[in-house]
Amino acid sequence: MTVYVDLVFLSNLTMDAAVLLATAKARRLRPAKRRVAASATLGAAYAAAMFVATVPFLYTFGAKVGVSILMVLLAFGYGGPLRFARHLGSFYLASFAALGGMIGISSLLKYAGSPWELMEVTSSGSVAISFRMSAGLFAVTAAIAIWLYRGEKASVQSRDRLEALLADVSVRIDGQVWRCRGIVDTGNRLYDPLTRIPVMIMEAAVWRDQLPSGWADRLREEPADRLVSELDPSAPDGFAWSDRLRLVPYRGVNGSTRLMLAIKPDAVEIAVPGGNPLTHRRVLVGLDGGTLSAEGAYRAIVHADLTLADEQASAPSQTA
User: Fold this and answer.
1) Catalytic positions (predicted)?
2) Which of 103, 151, 276, 315 has the fewest CB atoms within 10 Å, measured from its CB?
3) Would you please indicate which residues are annotated as catalytic (active-site) residues?
4) Domain contains 313
């Protein structure tokens, strides 16, 4: 049997690129074309190498999984364990669907004749029926693909519901603008108790380069008032936003009262899906030292009042 390695490489390059693009569509990603091309080239080179290099390790299950992991990383990046696991699952789903389709089409084309033609007598005298084996492989592949598809479909529906609550957030301070995605939380009723200004929450890591050294990480464990007490207003190289800092009391999960470090911006613009951007100047941005979304889908929690066109709307009588 003659195997043309160049044809193996080109066919796998095309197939891998199609699977990667299908994965990107399922996950609603927009990877760079060069990254998809590089990932598909890696997969095609691996498939071609199996016919050139006599290395038993290339045929093992671990080697195949390792190459697929490298392909997903190269095409879509990491982005956290949960996000990567979903990318990898979608990649396998698209691969299984493609494999099932090829097996199904091959079965239809190969076994279109009489079923007696499917039987052959082996050298040991037994009868082998290739149709049953191919059909079984197709059934297993189809079952796996359907199971993965149903799980991915539920995941897509969950992301659709989440997308409806997401908004584009732009914070402007001293002529500079910081942008991120935020989720509108109708349960967030946090206000500054003195000024009755609504407080939205944002990851401190967004401001890592503007905050004093180490603050973005120390906010996870240390009280906000301790960090503020370390500032020296008379220092020539002091924190430029010292006059913008606020300490906002709030109740933690265990019911205890704590202080949140907040910044008074010049303006905050909120753009919700299907609506016009709303600009608010009476708002505080509270800094959270952790990660608000494990998947990185959003980095801010938007106060419900900031989705209202009238920023002078009356605040409730009690804070939360």
Assistant:
1) 185
2) 276
3) 185
4) no
